[in-house]
Amino acid sequence: MANKVLEFRGINLSHLGMYFEDLGAEKLSDSSPYLFETLTWKAEILSEEVITITSSFHVNAVKIRFIADNEEILEQVIKNYRKKTTRVGG
Hints:
Largest sheet: 5 strands, antiparallel
Radius of gyration: 13 Å
CATH architecture: 2-Layer Sandwich
Structural class: alpha+beta
Number of domains: 1
Number of helices: 2
């Protein structure tokens, strides 16, 4: 088993969950930690907190654990998930 914990900032928690479902995972829980699972990988939304950048600028920070059968699957799931979470400023 391979696993990695990553932090995502500034993305709504419900959207982060929907992205796992878009990648083919089934949602297994409706409360924290939120669990998503396929035959070869799992994800757990572990926590959400508000980070203060300045006195008037706050963003959410969500920690997610990715777990896969092997390193190759883990890296592919993370790559696909990062495509869903990429935000381009303008």
